[in-house]
Write a structure and sequence with these properties.
Helices cover 39% and strands 12% of the residues. The chain is of the alpha/beta class. It has a nine-stranded mixed sheet with strand order 6-14-7-13-12-8-11-9-10. It has a seven-stranded mixed sheet with strand order 16-15-23-20-17-19-18, sandwiched between helices. The protein has a five-stranded antiparallel sheet with strand order 27-26-25-24-28. The longest helix is centred in the C-terminal third of the chain and has 25 residues.
C-alpha cells in the first residue's frame, strides 16, 4: 500500500491523526495526538501490524449503521473545499436579488373577422380574466393545468372541479355581482347600444299584435351576440335558464331555430321583463320535469336522415330503443336506458365511446365489479383499440380516450381534481340496478356484498360531483322507479335526462316446474309461465299432482311434514342426473344452474362423476385452452387441488363458478362457456352480473337464499336478472327457465310474486363517510350539507315548490293582524303535529296496500277509488282498464269533475290552500257534474273503496275518445258514461265526509307488523282529531298558515336533512381525534385520512401511534389483512408474538375509536365496530409475504382459494394507501417498508395478470 503524503498542518486543519493498524489497510483515528508528535499518518511497524481477529461486521455496523454521520454521503470536506475554491471567482450581482417570477399575462390576442365572409381582418388585444386561478385555489375549469405527474390521479391538495348543478358562488363572485348591481339601475339606466355596434336593444313597450319582422342575417347575428353576451363566465351560474339555452343554440339546424323567436321576443319585452325576478316565472314549470320519458313504440324512420354519418356502425339493424338512445347521444343529452339482460344496452355505451373518439374527448366506463371491468376492457379493446384500464392493482394505457375503471378511482379523481375530467364527455354507469344491492352474494361469505354496498355509496357521490360539461349514461335492468331516479339526477345536475325503457325481451322466456327424479319420471316438466307472460295455474296443479303420485300412502293419509326443504345428497344427485340427461337429449345445453351456496355448487358438480357431455374434439380444445391459459403460472401453482379438480370437470363439459374459485380459473371457465364448451355451469348469483353470457337453459336449484340474516325467497328483480341469462339471441326462439321441485312444489303465491312481481326499486345507499366529510371540508366552496341535500335519499324534497309556497304564505300573512294563540287556539300545535303524523301514516299504509298482491287484485275493473293528483282532490273514479305492464302499471279510470275542468285547464280545486290538513271530504261539484277519462299511476290513487260499479269499459272509453275529436266535441255523453258518472256522484253525495275504504288487515289480509301497527295507529289518530278545540276558532285558517310557513321554512333549511344529526356526530368524532379543528379546518391527520378509502380512522390512528413502525414488512401486511377480510373462520391462526402484540394494539385502538363514536352519539356499539376486523388470514398473509408457495398456505385455512386471492389483492391496495399516507406524514421509513411489503405479496398466482387484459 502506498504511503499518503500529507501537506504540513495549516490553521484550517483539525488536530487529528491516523494510525495504520496492520497490513489489512485499517486505520485508527487519533483525536488527541501526543504533544510535539507529527500529524501525518504513521504506523506502529514499518510494514504495519499483523491482521487482528476483530470482527469486521461488528466494526462496520458500529461505525456506519449506528452512527450514520460516518457515511461518505455526510462528508462535508469535499463540498466545502469546492465551495472555497469557487467563492473568490463569483461576482456580486445585486440586480439578481430584484428578479421575481413572471406574472401571468393579463391580456391576449383575439382575431377580428368580417361578419359576412368570415375573412381575417385584424388582431385585437383583449383582457384575460382569472389568470391567478390554480388547482390550489379554484374550482373553475378556467384554472391552469397542474403538473403532468398529477394529471391522471390528481392530488389530495387540489380542489375538485365545480360539481354540475351547484349554484354556490365564491366570495369574489358575490362581491363582483353586487358591485355590478349597484352600478346599474334596471328601471332607467339600461344601456341600449353595445360599444362598436350601430344599433342595440329596444326596451320600449310594444303592442302585442306586432307584425312579424323580416328575417335578415345581420339582425339574427346581432340577436345571437346579445344572447351570448348575457352569459358571463362564472357570475351568473345560478341563472339556470340562461345556462341551459346557451349550449343549445349552436346545434341549431336552421336560421329560424337560431334567432327568430329570440329576435321577436327580445324586441318586445316590457321593462320588467328584463328584470331577473321575472325569470323564475317561466322556469318552475319546465324545471319540474327533468326526466323525459322517450316513446319507443313508434318506429324511428328518419334515423339515417338525422344521423347520415354515424360515429359507429353495427353489422345489424338497431332496435327502436337503441336508435332513440343514439339520437339523444348525438344531441349530447344524458340518458337512462332500462332494458332486460341481453337486450343490447352495450350498443349505447359503444356509441358514446365512438362519439368521444370522433370529438377527441374522453369517456369513462364504470361497473360495480372489477371482473366486469376486465371483461369490458377486452371487448372494447377489440372494438376500439384506444382503451385503458384503471383498477386498484392494474393501470393500462391511462392516456386512452376510453378509460374503464372502478367507481372508487373515479371518485378519487373527482375529489383530487384530475386533469382527465377536463376532457371528459361521457361517464357510463353500467349495471345500475346493483347499486342498492347490499346483500350477501355468495352465502355464507359477505365479501362481495360489502364491495357492492360500498360501491352504492361511492356511486351516488360520483354522480353529485361530476362537473356540468360531463354527460351521464346509465344502463340498468328494468326498474320500477327509473323516472323518479332520473328526475333526481336531472334536478341535481340541472339538465334533462331522457329515460328510455323497454320491457321487450329479444328472446322470450318460458318458465317450467320440474318434478322428475328418475329415468321413469324424467319428462315431468310443466309449463308455468308462457312466452307471453301468462301464469298457467293448470301447469302448477299438474306439477303438484305429479309430486303427490310419488308420496307414500302414509303421507297421503296423514299429510307430509313440510318443515324442511332440504334433501339428501343422493336425492340431489338423482334429480340432477335425470334433468341433465333429459336436457342433453333435447339439445337444451348449455345450462346455467343457479345454486345459492358455494358448497352445494361444488358438491353438485362433483356428484356428476358419471356424466360426460363433450366430444373428443371439444375435449382437445378444452385441454389446449386450459393448458395455454395456465402456462403463465409457476409449476407448483399448476398442481393446486382446485385447478386439478376443475381440469377434470371441464374436460367433461362441467364447471363451477363462484367467489371461492381462483380468479384465473373463473376467467378460463367464462371464456370456455362463451365458446359453448362448458355444457353445465353450477354458479352462484354473481355469474348473473357478468357480461352477456347467455345459455340455452337456466335452472334454479332452489328459490330460497340466505341474505346474511336468514333465508328468504328470491326477489322478483333477482329472479328476472338470473332467469334473463336464458335464451341466446339469434340462436334460440325461446329461453327455458326451470325451477326444481326437489322436496315439494313451491307455493303458488310465492312463484307468482317472484316471476311476475315488480323488480326492487332503486334506493339510495347514500351514507356519510369520514373520507367524504374530510374531502369536502378541505374545499371551502363545497359544503357537506350540499352533498347531503343532493343525495337520492333527499330526492323527495321539492325545494322549488316549497320556496314558491313560502313566498305566497309570507305575502298572505303580511296583510293579516298578529294572531292570538291563547284560549280556543291553545291546542293548535298538538293538532298540527297530529295531522302531520296522520298524513304520513296514511301515505305509508296506502303505499303498502298498493305494493301488495291483494291490493293490486282489488284494483280491478269496476272498483271505485279516490283520486288525488294535480287535477283532482278527493274525486271519486271507477277503474275501467288495468295495463299489463307490471313495472309501470297504469289504470284507465273515469273520474268525476267540475264542468269545464275536464282537461285540467279550468279552475282547479284549491288543493294548495290546505295541503297540510288531513282532509277526507269527497269532491262534490258546485255546478253541473262532468267527467274525464284518464290514465292513473299508483300514486294517484289515495284510497281503494269498498264499492264496485258495473261498467262497460270499452263502450265508455270509445265514447270518450270519440268526443275528444273536434267535430263530435259537443255530442252528449253515451248511456254507459252517464250512468257511471251519476253513480259516482250519488256515492259522493251520500258520503260527503268520506267513503268507507278497504281495511288493509281484515279485507286485504296484509299481516306484516308495519301494516298492522300502522292501521291501529291510524284509528287512534283519527279518533283524537275530534277532541281539538282549535278547529272551531274563526281565525283557525290563518293560524294554520303560520304553522305551515314554519314547517316549510324548516323543510327547506339544512336542519331538516335526515343525515344532519349524524353529520354533527361525525364532526364531533373528527374534532375529538384532531382531524379537524373547532372551525372545521382540516389538520394533518385529516389530510392523511383523505388518502384512505375505507377504515380511514383506524388506519390513520395506527399510523400516528407508530403501531406499524416496529413490525417487519411481512408482519405489517399480515396485520393489515384484518381491514380486507370479512369472513369468520374455524381455524385458529398460529402467529408470532410480535404479531400478537400488533393485533392487541389494533384492537385497543379500534376499541378506543368505537367508544368515542358511541360517546359522540353514533348508533354503533364499540363491540360492533371492533367486530368488523377479522384476523383469520393473518397467518396466511404472513407466510405468503415470506415466500411460502400458494399450495401450502391454502392448507393453513378453511377459507377458499378464490377468497384468499381477492383478500391479498385488496390488501395490496391498502398497503399502497398506507405508503402514500406515510409520505404525507414524512415517515419515509414506513413508506419504504410498505413498498417492500407490497412487493413481497405481489407474486405468483395471486397477481397473475387477467386473461382479459393480455
Amino acid at each position: 500500500m502506498d504511503r499518503i503524503n500529507v501537506p504540513p498542518a495549516g490553521p484550517m486543519d483539525l488536530p487529528l491523526s491516523l494510525l495504520e493498524m496492520g497490513c489489512s489497510g485499517r486505520f485508527e483515528l487519533i483525536t488527541h495526538p501526543i504533544p510535539n508528535q507529527p500529524l501525518p499518518p504513521h504506523s506502529t511497524l514499518p510494514h504495519g501490524l499483523p491482521p487482528t481477529s476483530l470482527n469486521l461486521e461488528t466494526e462496520v455496523e458500529k461505525r456506519f449503521l449506528q452512527d450514520p454521520a460516518w457515511l461518505p454521503i455526510h462528508d462535508t470536506d469535499f463540498a466545502f473545499q469546492k465551495f472555497l475554491k469557487y467563492i473568490h471567482l463569483r461576482e456580486c450581482n445585486v440586480n439578481s436579488l430584484l428578479n421575481c417570477t413572471q406574472s401571468p399575462l393579463h391580456s391576449g390576442l383575439s382575431v377580428v373577422r368580417d361578419p359576412t365572409t368570415g375573412m381575417l381582418l385584424d388582431f385585437t388585444e383583449v383582457p384575460l380574466e382569472n389568470t391567478g386561478l390554480s388547482a390550489k385555489n379554484s374550482l373553475s375549469l378556467q384554472r391552469q393545468p397542474g403538473p403532468p405527474s398529477e394529471s391522471l390521479r390528481g392530488s389530495n391538495t387540489n380542489y375538485p372541479f365545480l360539481p354540475g348543478g351547484m349554484e354556490e358562488l365564491t366570495l369574489d363572485q358575490i362581491k363582483k355581482k353586487s358591485e355590478l348591481e349597484e352600478d346599474i339601475d334596471f328601471e332607467k339606466d339600461l344601456l341600449r347600444v353595445p360599444p362598436g355596434l350601430k344599433a342595440g336593444m329596444d326596451f320600449t313597450d310594444k303592442d302585442a299584435t306586432v307584425a312579424k319582422p323580416e328575417v335578415n342575417l345581420m339582425s339574427l347575428l346581432s340577436s345571437f351576440d346579445d344572447i351570448i353576451n348575457l352569459q358571463p363566465e362564472a357570475e351568473e351560474k345560478e341563472e339556470s335558464k340562461g345556462g341551459e339555452e346557451a349550449p343549445k343554440l349552436p346545434r341549431s339546424n336552421s336560421l329560424e331555430d337560431l334567432g327568430i323567436k329570440d329576435a321577436v321576443s327580445s324586441s318586445a319585452p316590457s321593462e320588467k321583463g328584463k328584470d331577473e325576478k321575472s325569470k323564475p316565472k317561466e322556469n318552475p314549470e319546465e324545471n319540474k320535469k327533468w326526466a323525459i320519458p322517450v316513446n319507443i313504440t313508434s318506429p324511428c324512420d328518419d334515423f339515417y336522415k338525422r344521423i347520415p354519418n354515424p360515429a359507429f356502425k353495427w353489422p345489424f339493424e338497431l332496435d327502436v330503443f337503441q336508435k332513440q338512445a343514439v339520437l339523444r347521444l348525438e344531441a349530447h343529452d344524458s340518458v337512462f336506458v332500462a332494458a332486460h339482460t341481453s337486450a343490447g344496452k352495450t350498443v349505447v355505451a359503444e356509441y358514446a365511446i365512438a362519439l368521444s373518439q370522433k370529438h377527441m374527448t374522453r369517456t369513462i366506463y364504470t361497473s360495480p365489479i372489477k371482473a366486469l371491468s376486465n371483461q369490458k376492457f377486452r371487448d372494447f379493446k377489440n372494438t376500439f383499440g384506444d382503451v385503458g384500464l384503471l383498477t386498484g392493482d392494474v393501470q393500462l394505457s391511462p392516456e386512452s380516450s376510453c378509460l374503464i375503471m372502478t367507481t372508487e378511482i373515479l371518485r378519487s379523481m373527482l375529489y383530487n381534481g384530475s386533469e382527465v375530467i377536463r376532457d371528459l364527455e361521457w361517464v357510463i354507469f353500467d349495471e345500475v340496478h346493483y347499486i342498492n344491492d347490499a346483500e350477501v352474494r355468495d352465502s355464507p361469505s359477505c365479501f362481495s356484498s360489502a364491495i357492492l354496498f360500498i360501491r352504492g355509496v361511492v356511486w351516488e357521490e360520483v354522480l353529485i360531483m361530476l362537473p356540468d360539461h360531463v354527460s351521464i349514461i346509465l344502463l340498468s335492468a328494468t326498474v320500477p322507479n327509473a323516472l323518479e331516479f332520473s328526475e333526481w339526477i336531472g334536478r341535481i345536475k340541472k339538465r334533462h335526462i331522457y329515460v328510455i325503457s323497454t320491457m321487450k325481451r329479444p328472446v322470450p322466456l318460458e318458465h317450467y316446474l320440474y318434478t322428475g327424479n328418475s329415468t321413469k319420471t324424467q319428462k315431468e316438466m310443466f309449463l308455468l309461465v308462457d312466452a307471453a307472460g301468462n301464469f298457467l295455474t293448470k301447469g302448477y296443479y299438474a306439477a303438484v299432482d305429479a309430486k303427490k303420485e310419488r308420496t307414500s300412502k302414509h303421507a297421503q293419509s296423514f299429510g307430509t311434514k313440510n318443515t324442511s326443504q332440504n334433501t339428501s345428497a343422493s336425492q340431489d344427485r338423482a334429480v340432477w342426473l335425470t334433468l341433465l340427461h333429459f336436457l342433453f337429449q333435447r339439445q337444451q345445453t348449455p345450462v346455467v344452474a343457479f345454486t345459492f351456496s358455494r358448497t352445494r355448487c361444488d358438491e353438485n358438480a362433483r356428484s356428476l362423476d358419471s356424466m360426460d357431455l363433450t366430444t373428443s374434439i371439444e375435449k382437445a380444445e378444452i385441454h389446449s385452452f386450459f393448458q395455454k391459459s395456465l402456462s403463465r403460472l409457476r409449476g407448483g401453482d399448476r398442481q393446486l387441488p382446485q385447478i386439478l379438480l376443475m381440469r377434470d370437470l371441464l374436460k367433461r363439459g362441467i364447471a363451477v363458478h363462484h367467489s371461492g374459485i381462483l380468479p384465473i380459473l373463473k376467467e378460463v371457465i367464462e371464456m370456455l362457456f362463451s365458446r359453448g364448451l362448458v355444457k353445465v355451469l353450477f354458479a352462484t348469483e354473481t355469474f348473473a352480473m357478468g357480461v352477456n353470457m347467455p345459455a340455452r337453459t337456466v335452472v334454479f336449484d332452489s328459490i330460497r337464499k340466505h341474505d346474511g340474516t336468514g333465508f328468504r325467497n328470491l326477489l322478483p328483480g333477482e329472479y328476472i336478472q338470473m332467469a334473463g341469462r336464458a335464451g341466446r339471441r339469434g340462436l334460440d326462439a325461446t329461453g327455458t327457465v326451470i325451477i326444481l321441485c326437489k322436496a315439494g312444489v313451491h307455493e303458488m303465491a310465492d312463484l307468482h310474486v317472484m316471476m311476475l312481481g315488480k323488480p326492487t326499486i332503486l334506493q339510495s345507499q347514500f351514507r356519510l363517510t369520514y373520507t367524504m366529510i374530510l374531502n369536502l371540508l378541505r374545499v371551502e366552496a363545497l359544503r357537506v350539507t350540499d352533498m347531503m341535500r343532493r343525495s337520492f335519499s333527499e330526492s323527495h324534497r321539492d325545494t322549488q315548490a316549497q320556496e314558491k309556497r313560502i313566498s305566497q304564505l309570507k305575502q298572505t300573512l303580511s296583510s293579516l293582524p298578529p294572531l292570538d294563540t291563547e284560549g280556543q287556539l291553545s291546542d293548535l300545535m298538538p293538532y298540527y303535529r297530529t295531522v302531520t303524523e296522520l298524513r304520513t301514516t296514511t301515505d305509508a299504509l296506502q303505499r303498502a296496500i298498493l305494493e301488495s298482491v291483494n291490493g293490486l287484485k282489488a284494483l280491478s275493473m269496476g272498483r271505485v277509488v279516490v283520486v288525488n293528483n294535480k287535477q283532482h282532490l278527493n274525486a271519486l273514479g271507477v277503474i275501467l282498464q288495468v295495463s299489463n305492464d307490471s313495472v309501470n302499471r297504469t289504470f284507465t279510470a273515469l273520474i268525476i269533475c267540475e264542468k269545464g275542468n275536464e282537461e285540467g285547464g279550468g279552475k282547479s280545486n284549491d288543493s294548495a290552500a290546505f295541503p297540510h290538513l288531513y282532509n277526507t271530504a269527497l269532491f262534490i261539484p258546485e255546478g253541473p257534474c262532468s267527467h274525464t277519462v284518464q290514465k292513473l299511476k299508483l300514486q294517484d290513487i289515495s284510497a281503494i273503496t269498498v264499492k264496485t260499479l258495473k261498467v262497460i269499459p270499452d263502450r265508455i272509453i270509445d265514447n270518450y275518445n270519440k268526443r275528444q275529436q273536434p267535430r263530435f266535441r259537443h255530442d252528449p255523453p253515451g248511456q254507459a258514461i252517464s250512468t257511471a258518472t251519476q253513480e259516482l256522484l250519488r256515492l259522493a253525495e251520500a258520503n260527503p265526509s268520506g267513503i268507507a275504504t278497504l281495511d288493509p288487515v281484515n279485507d286485504l289480509q296484509l299481516k306484516s307488523v308495519d301494516v298492522v301497527e300502522g292501521s291501529m295507529r291510524l284509528r287512534v289518530l283519527q279518533e283524537s282529531l275530534r277532541d281539538f278545540n282549535c278547529i272551531h276558532s274563526p281565525t283557525f285558517a290563518e293560524q294554520v298558515r303560520v304553522k305551515e310557513l314554519d314547517t316549510l321554512l324548516f323543510l327547506v333549511s339544512d336542519q331538516s336533512l335526515s343525515l344532519l344529526p349524524e353529520y354533527h356526530q361525525r364532526i364531533k368524532v373528527l374534532q375529538s381525534l384532531q382531524y379537524v379543528d373547532s372551525s372545521g379546518a382540516v389538520q394533518l391527520k385529516g389530510r392523511v385520512a383523505c388518502q384512505i378509502s375505507s377504515h380511514e380512522l383506524l388506519l390513520t390512528e395506527l399510523l400516528f401511534e407508530n403501531v406499524l413502525s416496529p413490525l417487519a414488512p411481512e408482519e405489517s401486511a399480515a396485520l393489515l389483512s384484518c381491514l380486507v377480510f370479512t369472513q369468520n373462520t374455524q381455524v385458529e391462526p398460529h402467529i408470532t408474538n410480535t404479531l400478537q402484540e400488533g393485533i392487541d394494539r389494533v384492537l385497543s385502538v379500534a376499541q378506543r375509536i368505537g367508544e368515542l363514536q358511541r360517546d359522540c352519539g353514533i348508533p354503533q356499539t364499540a363491540e360492533e365496530f371492533v367486530g368488523q376486523f377479522k384476523f383469520g388470514l393473518t397467518e396466511v398473509v404472513y407466510c405468503w409475504a415470506r415466500g411460502m408457495p400458494f399450495a401450502e398456505i391454502a392448507l393453513l385455512t378453511d377459507v377458499q382459494e378464490g377468497t384468499v386471492v381477492r383478500c391479498i389483492q385488496r390488501l395490496d391496495e391498502v398497503l399502497k394507501e398506507v405508503r402514500q399516507a406515510a409520505r404525507i406524514v414524512g415517515d419515509s421509513v414506513l413508506g419504504s417498508k410498505m413498498e417492500r411489503a407490497s412487493l413481497a405479496i405481489r407474486r405468483d398466482i395471486v397477481f397473475t395478470a387477467s386473461l382479459y387484459t393480455h
